[in-house]
Design brief:
With 74 residues, the protein is mostly helical. It has 2 helices and no strands.
Length: 74
Amino acid sequence: MARGRPKSDEPTCVLAVRVPIALREQLDRSLDALETRVGLKASRNEIIRHALRQFLEAEQHQGQPRPPPRVEAP
């Protein structure tokens, strides 16, 4: 994945998302492992953008939208 703001003609906006510290730390560990295993350097924003896109595409293919599963901080 390319780093930084996506380069495209598609307009973008900024979404501020508040997440529990434990979830952010889990994301950071996952990003570190990804870089170590694959050599791919990705940012939090890239991963969040990708996860949101995957979630919405999966919901679209499954028919009726359902509320997302609740993520509990440990």
